[in-house]
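Components:
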Amino acid sequence: MAKKKPPSRAECPVERSVDIIGDEWSLLVIRDAFDGVRRFGEFQKSLGMAKNILSTRLRHLVTHGILEVVPASDGSAFHEYVLTRKGRDLFQVLVGLRQWGEHHCFQPDEAHSVLVDTEQGRPVRALEVRSESGRPVTSTETVVKKVAEKKPRAKR
Amino acid sequence: MAKKKPPSRAECPVERSVDIIGDEWSLLVIRDAFDGVRRFGEFQKSLGMAKNILSTRLRHLVTHGILEVVPASDGSAFHEYVLTRKGRDLFQVLVGLRQWGEHHCFQPDEAHSVLVDTEQGRPVRALEVRSESGRPVTSTETVVKKVAEKKPRAKR
DNA sequence: CAATATGGTTTCAAAATGAAACCATCCGGA
DNA sequence: TCCGGATGGTTTCATTTTGAAACCATATTG
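Structure:
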């Protein structure tokens, strides 16, 4: 839920991300936002979630700069929730979740939606993690380098 | 928590993924597993979570084939939890979360750990979503194509 | 200007969480 | 081999979060 906790001070970026968007509803709200959902009622209907929970989630995402509130695009007095740059930058994460789900959460004969590029109408490629030199690397070929203890710069 | 719910029948792969791993603890357990954590006590200490919750999460991840229980590598009678192929395939998702966190959840002067490839010891590249032709595409250049209503194949 | 749609908030029961106590097995040493 | 501690849990219970439903204020529509 929208955490009362102070912003995560973890040194691990994964942890900070998860602290913000690592709950089911937030990720699904973001997915809907990528799909063009903008209005409170649309989210609620699409996700089938309780209004109070949606309300806290939207507030949470706005607070964290992932969504922003803008005047309704149809000129009415209502407002809408749209992804910020920060929110759109979650694209790779959503694509990763999508591709993993496609690969591991469906039976071979089961149909699922597909992410296609609008230009060609063909499915996007599988995400690849690449080294700086461009070589694809697997998880076993990488390691997390802990942050060096910030050595206070010698006075100069 | 470990859901009692039957496996998600959503047609959206993102939703199925999120239904399985879309909670804070599961993702952090998986992150630790990528970092080589294998023992119950290690997870518990690393994550600082209650043992009962860790217990349900590990069971949940094992049930869903993301972790598997193997005999302890040190020959003791205890066992260990290691990522399966399915679990390792979450690499891109974790990398996505990491890179987003690095970019959006740290102050410019704040240090954070870094994922490097062991071969060169240099940070991996930023994930890119590419079209089938290899062109990088943004979220605005893609669309989710809903699954065609499975048309029962005409009898032949 | 009345009726309804929209976008919430409040209330309250049920479920999940987390801290702590408890417990069984394993291991290492005297 | 037997004792004490480490390991890997489960149980218990108070607190927190969730979710369904009722309620409410403003906006829009007829």
